[in-house]
Write a structure and sequence with these properties.
The structure holds two protein chains of two kinds.
Chain A: H1 2-15, H2 17-45, E1 57-60, E2 63-66, E3 71-74, H3 78-84, E4 91-98, E5 101-107, E6 110-119, H4 123-126, E7 133-134, H5 139-144, E8 148-152, H6 153-160, E9 169-172, E10 175-183, E11 197-200, E12 217-223, H7 229-240, E13 251-253, H8 259-268, H9 276-305, H10 307-319, H11 324-359, H12 372-398, H13 402-406
Parallel strand pairs in A: 6-11, 8-10
Antiparallel strand pairs in A: 1-12, 2-3, 2-13, 4-12, 5-6, 7-10, 8-11, 9-10
Helix pairs in contact in A: 1-11, 2-9, 2-11, 2-12, 8-9, 9-12, 11-12
Chain B: H1 2-11, H2 13-44, E1 55-61, H3 92-103, E2 108-115, E3 124-130, E4 133-142, H4 146-150, E5 154-157, E6 169-175, H5 176-183, H6 198-201, E7 206-213, E8 228-232, H7 238-241, E9 245-250, H8 256-269, E10 274-279, H9 280-323, H10 325-333, H11 338-364, H12 366-369, H13 378-408, H14 412-417
Parallel strand pairs in B: 4-8, 6-7
Antiparallel strand pairs in B: 1-9, 1-10, 2-4, 2-9, 3-4, 5-7, 6-8
Classes of the chains: A alpha+beta, B alpha+beta.
């Protein structure tokens, strides 16, 4: 039966070229925008190398301290993680890494701008960097405060041309580091892991960071097991009570969670909710639905106005005993087929647009690509759009009485 | 004629309701786009209030320059982090020395400590009760040289300087927009701009207005905040202790080698602090891109939406003309000319567009009524509304032309036989 419907709907697609074009243009463009948005969000928030162990990594980027009349929100401080959050059972490793900060190098007469990340040895164990040359720095480098650096590929090109960088000296922010390793570029929107230079945290110009509860640092927790999320969050919450706060604050909030959850928390501005992630998701999906309204109304209009073309067909089918429900399903199915065709076009176009975005220099080191997850989103959007825009015309058509339909009358 | 059109529309109300709904949604999208573009456009052409060409910004990082929330004492490093705020500034001599370092460079014409600098993306916002009304503004602090560094455009009063030394007040310069908001038609010079109650004051001493500048759009041409205050900062003060940036007016022709020289000299004078010297035009360029990119993407999406609607509408009209071919045939047979038929098709569309727009206007008028406009002035709102109405009628006309022409080609005899 479905095969029959499919055949029919493809036939109708070919019947009126202008209408097919208008419908497909509308559907394709709408789905293109939605798929692009989904692809970008996916690349910002899901696991991509080097975050290959994303399914059992939790992060904290923002911490909120609250008092009677002051509030302080932003990245946590080194002391917060280092003094209070080490040794949580179920956590295999904890890495504390600074926000990427801009540093300037004056190199052979040119001014080079880089992002520096100051971190520890566990950073390279939690993350899965594929070293192009050399290797990470180790515990000893960090505890001794050695001036060593892991750099990314673009930085190697900027400073040393195509050649090897191992053992070379690199100057940044008035400090000189010896290069020990080179890693591939991490896109700028992967805030947790992006950087041009990765250096031991102990090379900071002062030790002052060791005293801060708030400011400048992210934490990455590698869990022993991905099912341990809740127990780690419980333990973390219990530990928050032990934090000695400065006098102007009486509470502190932070939750180790996925990067998306963490971002959602900041976006919604609610540091106590348990499910910031799902709330942000609901907001995003509502926005997507709103965006679909205009194209959907457009398509509904076209479909309804074309009802006449189908009138005799409907009349015959009704006369031969098809129920209104059968017809409703048929027309809905047809609309979904058109939407899916549009969706496939949109996926192809988004792959193209993403490739263009990667090529252009708009977003440094952008690595947007298609994957099954994004394709699944695109497909889901197409289905949703097909149903939203198909229900009303299908209902209208299915309600025709056989006589009306055979007489060709749709008012 | 119009009444007749209404009747015709009413006869096909189901199909027409959808067309009206579509025009209605389209109206909302167009309205959002046109209001936003008019808003950005007018904003862009408002005076900036300062000149950033040939200015370098120096970002200085040291322990006190970061927000000092949540510092805890740790044995061994506690010296850097006293628990209570100091009244005096432990960095005073060093800050004075650093300014002397940059001023001694031959490429530097003038230099000042100031924060936040233009294009720094950091913002200090104050809002409080002032003369029993809410007042809010953004603010920056600077030393006396800042006016000549940025070429700040003064319209009334004077810039602050040594004549304010030893006073019991903090000298401030405010923008024209803020002066109007706070003092109306009164002369703002010499007035206090401190909040009504102690809790709202936010400052320990009276802030006295000594001058009015034309504008100060901190983040550049697209900045929307018009209420801005520049406060005079003194080296020994607590505020100066956290001051983490300098602005340098350069003699023309300063390039990367000058930057390198300055950075090196600063680094040598304060080895444990970090410095980032950058031409301000770079920040301006970045900001322009940051503001324009979402606007551009939004405009493109809206354009496609409207194109889609236009195609859809002409499709629907075309279809409706085909459906009503017999009706048209009858009219032609009874002596209506082609132009009459054309007028009817377009007239119907216009009536529908009007109905949709009336609904749309009723919806968007809620924004000014409920005070939801935010920073968008009423004049911009109404300009956007008029532009939307005009362009939507234009769009409807364009969509209707081809189907209407199609309707005029109907031959009465054929039309009457049409099945």
């Amino acid at each position: 039966m479905l095969k029959n419907y499919l055949k029919l709907s493809l036939k109708i697609l070919g019947r009126r070229k202008f209408f097919t074009f208008v419908s497909l243009f509308g559907i394709g463009f709408t789905l293109l925008v939605l798929t692009l948005a989904a692809a970008m969000l996916d690349h910002v928030f899901s696991s991509y190398p080097p975050e290959s162990r994303g399914d059992r990594t939790l992060v904290i980027d923002n911490v909120r301290m609250q008092g009677k009349d002051s509030m302080s929100t932003g990245p946590g401080g080194y002391a917060f993680y280092d003094r209070y959050m080490r040794g949580i059972p179920q956590v295999e490793r904890l890495s504390i890494a600074s926000q990427p900060e801009t540093v300037i190098s004056y190199w052979k007469g040119a001014r080079l701008k880089s992002l520096i990340k100051r971190t520890d040895a566990d950073f390279f164990r939690i993350l899965d960097f594929e070293f192009i040359e050399g290797g990470p720095f180790g515990e000893a480098d960090v505890s001794e405060g050695r001036f060593v650096a892991v750099i990314n590929e673009s930085t190697r090109t900027k400073f040393f041309g195509g050649g090897s960088a191992l053992g070379q000296a690199i100057e940044a922010d008035g400090q000189t580091f010896r290069v020990v390793g080179v890693v591939p570029d991490v896109p700028i929107y992967r805030l947790m892991t992006t950087g041009d230079l990765y250096v031991p945290v102990t090379t900071s110009k002062t030790d002052e960071y060791k005293t801060r509860l708030r400011g400048g640092f992210f934490a990455l927790f590698l869990l022993k097991d991905k099912d341990a999320v809740e127990s780690v969050q419980q333990e973390f919450k219990a530990r928050l009570a032990r934090v000695e706060l400065p006098p102007q604050f009486d509470r502190i909030y932070a939750v180790p969670e996925t990067f998306f959850g963490s971002f959602a928390r900041l976006f919604i501005g609610d540091f106590q909710t348990e499910d910031a992630g799902s709330r942000l998701m609901a907001i995003l999906l509502t926005a997507a639905a709103l965006f679909m309204i205009l194209p959907a109304v457009n398509l509904v209009n076209l479909n309804v106005s074309r009802a006449l073309e189908r009138a005799s067909e409907i009349g015959v089918r009704r006369a031969f005993g098809a129920s209104a429900r059968d017809l409703l399903l048929q027309f809905l199915f047809e609309n979904v087929v058109i939407s899916v065709v549009g969706g496939v076009l949109a996926l192809a176009c988004s792959a193209l647009v993403l490739a263009l975005l990667n090529q252009s220099d708009l977003i440094p080191f952008a690595h947007f690509s298609m994957n099954w997850r994004i394709a699944a989103w695109g497909f889901a959007f197409a289905l949703a759009f097909g149903v939203i825009s198909g229900v009303w015309p299908a209902w209208r058509l299915s309600r025709l009485t056989p006589i009306q339909a055979l007489a060709g009358g749709v008012k | 004629m119009i009444r007749h059109l209404f009747k015709l529309i009413w006869n096909r109300r189901r199909a027409n309701a959808l067309v009206i709904a579509e025009i209605f949604v389209c109206f909302l999208v167009l309205f959002a786009v046109s209001t936003l573009s008019i808003y950005s456009w007018t904003n862009y052409y408002k005076p900036l209030g300062f000149a950033y060409e040939n200015v370098f910004s120096v970002d200085v990082q040291f322990p006190e320059s970061k927000p000092d929330a949540g510092r805890i004492s740790v044995a061994g490093t506690a010296a850097a982090a006293p628990a209570t705020p100091l009244a005096e500034n432990p960095n005073e001599s060093r800050q004075r020395a650093l300014l002397a370092v940059v001023k001694s460079d031959p490429a530097v014409a003038e230099a000042a400590w100031a924060s936040p600098l233009p294009f720094s993306h950091s913002n200090e916002q104050r809002s409080f009760a002032f003369r029993k009304r809410d007042l809010s503004y953004s603010m920056g602090r600077c030393t006396d040289e800042y006016k000549s560094v940025l070429g700040i455009d003064m319209v009334r009063g004077r810039w602050f300087g040594p004549e304010d030394d030893g006073g019991s007040y903090e000298a401030v310069v405010i923008t024209e927009a803020l002066a109007k908001r706070a003092f109306g038609e009164e002369d703002p010079i010499g007035q206090s701009i401190t909040g009504d109650t102690n809790a709202d004051r936010g400052a320990d001493v009276e802030q006295r207005v000594v001058g009015v500048m034309r504008a100060f759009k901190q983040e550049g041409e697209m900045e929307t905040e018009e209420a801005y205050v520049l406060t005079r900062v003194l080296y020994p003060s607590r505020q100066m202790r956290r001051m983490g940036s300098m602005a340098l007016r350069m003699k023309p022709g300063a390039d990367a080698s000058v930057e390198a020289r300055l950075a090196k000299a600063l680094q040598a004078a304060a080895p444990d602090w970090s410095f980032n010297v950058e031409p301000m035009v770079m920040g301006a360029e970045l900001n322009r891109r940051l503001y324009m990119a979402p606007l551009g993407v939004g405009a493109m999406v809206a354009l496609f939406l409207i194109l889609m609607v236009a195609l859809g509408l002409s499709g629907v009209l075309w279809q409706s003309v085909t459906t009503r071919i017999r009706e048209i045939g009858v009219r032609r047979a009874l002596g209506a000319s082609g132009a009459d038929v054309k007028r009817q098709v377009i007239g119907e569309l216009m009536v529908m567009a009007t109905i949709a727009m009336l609904a749309g206007i009723a919806v968007v008028l809620q924004f000014p009524f409920l005070d939801l406009l935010g920073p968008v002035p009423k004049s911009v709102f109404f300009a956007g509304l008029s532009l939307t109405i005009v362009s939507l009628y234009g769009l409807a006309l364009v969509c209707g032309l081809h189907p209407a022409r199609l309707a005029t080609t109907v031959h009465p005899a054929e039309a009457l036989r049409y099945e």
